[in-house]
Amino acid sequence: MGQYYIIDFDSTFTQVEALDELARISLKDHPDRESIYKQIEDFTNASMEGRLSFADSLEGRVKLLQANRDHLNLLIKHLRKKVSPSFLRNSVFFKEHADEVLIVSGGFKEFITPVVTEYYIKKENIYANTFKFDEEGHIIGYDRANPLSQEGGKVKLLQELNLPGDIYGIGDGYSDFQLKESGLIKTFFAFTENIERKSVVEKADHVTPSLDEFLYINRLPRAISYPKNRIKCLVVGEVEDEALSQMRKEGYNIRHQDTIREEYLQEAGILFCDEQNQPTPEQLQNAGKLKVIGCFGKINNRKTLEVACENGIIIFDDPKHNPRNADFIPKRVMAFMNEGKTHMSSNFPDLQPPRINNAHRLIHIHKNVPGILAQINDVFARHEINIVGEFLVTNSQIGYVITDVNAGYDEQVLSELKAIHFTIKFRLLY
Questions:
Q1: Sheet holding 398-405: strands in order across?
Q2: pLDDT of residue 49
């Protein structure tokens, strides 16, 4: 008895609805293209929200396409650039679970297969519709005998497959929820990275804003150790929309407040503030989850910089109204969160480690006392873990160590690293 992962394609594996995108390619020179686009989008949304049968929606869309094989080739190139970011970074999951991952879609194999097989997904595990073409290569219809072209098609398909084990479903539409409703799958995850359909979210067992969240919940291989949607980014004061847009795109949970209060800081992993709204040293003493501050302006209290450093909180700031800071601050924050880079920090020693593939990266921040690095390496040695890269920098207050190790260790290793005396903060990046 195994586990299987049923994954939708449109607006899940990719950021877009492929038939809608195909219409924009095939009808780009049509005089009534905007009206036809709208009709196709309406068919799509009505079906995804459960207001129209999938069979009727599919038939209506295909009739309006006026597409051929050349248009499909252009669509495939487009879709390869539109794979959802969290799917892009988690190819390790697809590689290690190639036998258990199934793509089940009401879309079409002609454009799905070339896209998903680049992510270790087997052709025999792709279930979708197929087009019918005339002699000139124009799409004239589709195989109506395929259960996925019919209402409740995903349910019919899984009944036929009769998979032996627990089945988990990931998708954004009503047809994905029908699998849960039928009792064929154990858990349905509503995928909201690209679109959030209220009628689907309300019925889901879990809402997963990214594939990272799904992999984290189910303890599956993943690119990052902790989903960014679970990390709160507290925003206080004047912070430009461009900066927040970058953080949203990364998946962080943005929370706006009028003032900085201890109860807000205690829940935040990231703080964005301006010169008029800065945390006090006393507030930082109790901000146990806070990892990084991005100040759009200069930190005006030297004590704040020192206390932040003592508590393992890195600060990036920039002169007020500097035109670059809407881009500079979020990029520095993300470089630290994603790779541990401290370059241009106001209070941490400078470190710009290269990314090492096929390794796990761990950050250890500790008081600058002798012997800590030896203790860290002793933990790895006792557990027979190979170090493939290690970097140490210090200032008068802290030591900052990044260690890249080969895959393959248990939770005990992490517990021992956290327990080293004088440890301030410890974090697994990926």
A1: 387-394, 398-405, 360-367, 423-428
A2: 85
